[in-house]
C-alpha cells in the first residue's frame, strides 16, 4: 500500500465527506508514508481553520447603513442626475466627433460638387459618356464576333490613331 499514495483521494474530496473505509485506508497508509502523512495532517488543519472561519460572523459598524445612505443622498442632491452626468462625460467626445463628421460629409456632398469646374480633359470625358461595356455590347450586337483589337481599343483607346 505504500506505493499507492492517497494524496489524490485527499485532494478530490473534503475530509468530512470521506467514508469510514477511506479514512481507515488513509490512516493505514500514513503510518508507512511520511509525505502522505504530512498531506493528511495539512488537510485536517485546513478543514479545522475553514470551520472556525465560517463560524465567525462579522457585523458592520453601528453607523454603516446611515453613512452609506447619507452619501447616496448627498450625491443625488449635488449632481442631480448623477448617473447621466458620468455617462455624458464619457460619451461626450464620441458624440461631438460624430456630429463633426456628419457636418463635414454634408458639406462635401452638397456644397463642393456644385462649385467644381470642368477642365479640358474632364470635358472630353464628360462628353463621351460611354463605358467600355456599352461600346463592346453595341459592337457585339452589330458583329457577332468581337476582335481583340476592338476590345483593347475600347478599353485603352488609341494614341494618334495608331493601334496597339
Structure description:
- This protein is mainly alpha-helical and 164 residues long.
- Helices cover 70% and strands 0% of the residues.
- It has helices at residues 7-12, 20-32, 34-55, 64-79, 82-110, 120-127, 132-142, 148-156.
- Helix 2 (20-32) crosses helix 3.
- The longest helix has 29 residues, at 82-110.
- The relative contact order is 0.04.
- The mean pLDDT is 76.
Question: What is this entry, summarized?
Answer:
The chain is an all-alpha fold and 164 residues long. Helix 2 packs across helix 3. The mean pLDDT is 76.
Q: Would you tell me the overall average pLDDT?
A: 76
Give the H and E element order: HHHHHHHH
CA radius of gyration is 43 Å
Indicate the proportion of strand residues.
Answer: under 5%
Net shape: elongated
Oligomeric category:
single chain
The number of E-state strands comes to 0
Helix coverage percent of residues? 55-70%
Low-confidence regions: none
Number of helices: 8
Distance between the termini: 94 Å
Structural class: mainly alpha
Largest sheet: none
What is the element layout, followed by pairings?
Blueprint: H1 7-12, H2 20-32, H3 34-55, H4 64-79, H5 82-110, H6 120-127, H7 132-142, H8 148-156
Helix pairs in contact: 2-3
